[in-house]
TrEMBL record:
<keyword id="KW-0325">Glycoprotein</keyword>
<keyword id="KW-0735">Signal-anchor</keyword>
<dbReference type="InterPro" id="IPR031481">
    <property type="entry name" value="Glyco_tran_10_N"/>
</dbReference>
<keyword id="KW-1133">Transmembrane helix</keyword>
<feature type="domain" description="Fucosyltransferase N-terminal">
    <location>
        <begin position="71"/>
        <end position="183"/>
    </location>
</feature>
<dbReference type="Pfam" id="PF17039">
    <property type="entry name" value="Glyco_tran_10_N"/>
</dbReference>
<comment type="similarity">
    <text>Belongs to the glycosyltransferase 10 family.</text>
</comment>
<dbReference type="InterPro" id="IPR055270">
    <property type="entry name" value="Glyco_tran_10_C"/>
</dbReference>
<feature type="transmembrane region" description="Helical">
    <location>
        <begin position="20"/>
        <end position="39"/>
    </location>
</feature>
<keyword id="KW-0808">Transferase</keyword>
<keyword id="KW-0328">Glycosyltransferase</keyword>
<dbReference type="GO" id="GO:0032580">
    <property type="term" value="C:Golgi cisterna membrane"/>
</dbReference>
<dbReference type="InterPro" id="IPR001503">
    <property type="entry name" value="Glyco_trans_10"/>
</dbReference>
<dbReference type="GO" id="GO:0000139">
    <property type="term" value="C:Golgi membrane"/>
</dbReference>
<dbReference type="Pfam" id="PF00852">
    <property type="entry name" value="Glyco_transf_10"/>
</dbReference>
<comment type="pathway">
    <text>Protein modification; protein glycosylation.</text>
</comment>
<keyword id="KW-0812">Transmembrane</keyword>
Amino acid sequence: MNAAMFNIFRYCSRLRYLLLCRQCLISVFLLCILVYATFRVKLSNDYKNAQVFYKTQQSICNNNLNQNQNRTKIILFWTKLFKRKADENYINNYFFTSSGRCGTNQCRVTNNRDELCASDAIIFHARGPINMNDMPTKRLPHQRYVLLIKEPPYKTTAIVGHLNYFFNWTATYRTDSDINYQYFYWRRKAKPTNETSQKSYLKNRQARAASMISNCYSQSNREGYLQRLNSIIPVTHVGYCSGTKCHKSREICLSQLAETHPFYLSFENSLCRDYATEKYANVIINNQMIPIIFSQTPNLYIPNSYIDANQFSSPEALGQFLRQLTLNTTMYDSYFKWKDEYDLIIPGPDDYLCDLCKKLNNPNEPYKVYDSMKKWLYNDAKCQRWVSKLNKTIDIPVDESMDYEEPWF
Ligand SMILES: *[C@@H]1O[C@H](CO)[C@@H](O)[C@H](O)[C@H]1NC(C)=O
Ligand SMILES: *[C@@H]1O[C@H](CO)[C@@H](O)[C@H](O)[C@H]1NC(C)=O
Ligand SMILES: *[C@@H]1O[C@H](CO)[C@@H](O)[C@H](O)[C@H]1NC(C)=O
Ligand SMILES: *[C@@H]1O[C@H](CO)[C@@H](O)[C@H](O)[C@H]1NC(C)=O
Ligand SMILES: *[C@@H]1O[C@H](CO)[C@@H](O)[C@H](O)[C@H]1NC(C)=O
């Protein structure tokens, strides 16, 4: 009797906790909605504010600006670069000395906002982040506001697309940026060499393609494409999405894959104009596999160094072509001949500062301002997605590209 009572009592108290819990779940749920709504309102206020922000800025820096054209130009980092501050000592010592990487001491970088009025360029990194509550309130007409970003549009915080009449220059991977911030570029050798003529690259490898991917659901839907390609030739995935991570250095991982794979899939997570990254460059440096790209702008890549999936009617057609290539050494090897004629150049992560410094010291640089960032950053990027049932790419609506925001919590 006692035991049964006790059990009933225990059951009831558990029920009570459950009921209590339901109330607390509902409260948490309502709280979430409230917080979400508050942030949405704040965000849309920010966007409105951003579009007319330039009207609130004042030019009231009166501290006897040094007008001498020859004075050292000051470059101020207004934001961080992702989570960290720019290393001003390192940059000033290794870039901006007469014998330094930029070959000039005519510039200096700083993180110190007290130097705002004395600055010639102010850098905003799009994932700094840029925060409308934390903007310079003073602005002088000769100052250049520079947008710095190496990410594709959907990873560029949406606030940037609302900052009209704000930026004077852009430093991005896009070739129409004012300042060169590309992942790589190439140039013709002054004197062609003959080093590839005696080499054979295929080495009995069977038709297989390798990939290293950490972003499992890409904006370009490369995973959909690769799934179809896999029906013709085996596609090996290494990385976060397949649960088979390679823990060694990138160079060693690539070389290991190259032992059994004659092709490497250098598809980007975003299929946007000019977006070409180290996914291609690393394979070119490794020099053992042919990179397969999917691109709107193939002229960014070294001629005859790649296969462009965009030139094939379907993944199956590409797969058949890759099979053919592995049956003909002469044809396969022809994709490595570029090395006799071209050089691949990979700029250092801070090399854009040399370009910026040069422009700041050029008195003939014209005034310039980006009136609509939305147009430049999103419309002009022309991002696309591959649609499996159509065998082709379609345009992604601009608003969909803009939706990305920093996590709120
Ligand atoms: C700036 O430097 C150039 C070349 O060094 C020199 O010719 C010119 O006189 C200088 N201008 C001023 C205002 O100091
Ligand atoms: C390169 O080597 C091949 C074969 O050894 C030779 O026929 C050709 O003339 C050479 N080309 C140049 C530019 O040296
Ligand atoms: C390999 O391809 C080359 C160039 O397209 C061609 O001339 C040659 O006949 C092919 N060889 C074989 C064995 O099919
Ligand atoms: C930079 O942009 C601002 C804002 O639109 C503009 O007022 C200023 O004239 C521009 N300055 C230069 C040097 O281009
Ligand atoms: C896409 O390509 C596949 C394989 O070549 C073909 O079977 C299919 O009919 C194609 N679809 C369209 C819509 O062209």
